[in-house]
């Protein structure tokens, strides 16, 4: 009887140590709606070199382990999405040409409500930038530079008051009439801004 009790206590301790160790080494899995947002985002993309191979909910259920994704260790919420392709140089010419993502930015990304860093620079994202990104109210860093995107308005930026770094270059801002006023008034935290001035004044004629 005594032996059994000692054995039970021993097993309980092993178990406690195991679960303690587990909680140190792993983190909460990402929430289902955030995973779904990434899956929908991927559906709209041409991913020739397959950099998003790990974005497969059947083989890798925890999207915190997907390429480019960083989650909060405790809550599992996605804090950072970085799919940036580094700037061109001779060494990475080949990899850059094959690893770019092409396609439209799905408005579903706005479901990543806890996102602080979004870096999609250096790809071939094209078309109208979804104004729903204005729902990413925790965003501090937004880099969409070096894509083929344009905006109709920058009104949606007013939903991102914590934004410190904002890169849209080179982007066709010709349809964004109120951009300068907005940037001055709605982005009090902004420390860095990268904009291409190309096309801004295309309505001016002599
Ligand atoms: C559990 O961990 C403690 C230190 O964290 C260690 O002293 C103890 O021997 C461990 N117990 C077992 C059963 O592994
Ligand atoms: C999560 O934990 C790792 C170590 O396991 C640490 O390096 C990292 O900074 C933590 N990240 C956050 C967001 O707390
Ligand atoms: C994203 O990753 C690239 C390297 O792949 C790095 O240069 C860049 O600073 C990262 N962006 C953020 C916001 O961490
Ligand atoms: C932002 O989120 C709110 C509440 O979650 C929702 O009602 C609204 O439609 C969203 N707006 C955009 C532009 O996605």
Main features:
25% helix, single chain, 6-stranded mixed beta sheet, 206 residues, alpha/beta, binds 2-acetamido-2-deoxy-beta-D-glucopyranose, disordered C terminus, Leucine-rich repeat, LRR (right-handed beta-alpha superhelix)
Structural class, judged by helices and strands? alpha/beta
Overall mean pLDDT: 79
Work out the strand percent.
15-25%
Biggest sheet, open or closed, and with what strands and sense? 6 strands, mixed
Look up the CATH topology: Leucine-rich repeat, LRR (right-handed beta-alpha superhelix)
Tell me the count of domains: 1
The amount of helix comes to 10-25%
Question: What is the CATH first-level class name?
Answer: Alpha Beta
Would you count the extended β strands for me? 10
Shape: globular
**What order do the helices and strands follow?**
HHEEEHEEEEEEHE
Spans of at least 5 consecutive residues with low confidence:
17-25, 197-206
Please state the second-level CATH architecture: Alpha-Beta Horseshoe
How many DSSP helices?
4
Radius of gyration: 22 Å
Structure description:
By secondary structure, the protein is of the alpha/beta class. The chain has one domain: Alpha-Beta Horseshoe (Leucine-rich repeat, LRR (right-handed beta-alpha superhelix)). 25% of the residues lie in helices and 16% in strands. α4 (179-186) links the parallel β9 (165-167) and β10. The longest helix has 24 residues, at 2-25. The chain is globular, with a radius of gyration of 22 Å. Residues 32-72 form the Leucine-rich repeat-containing N-terminal plant-type domain.
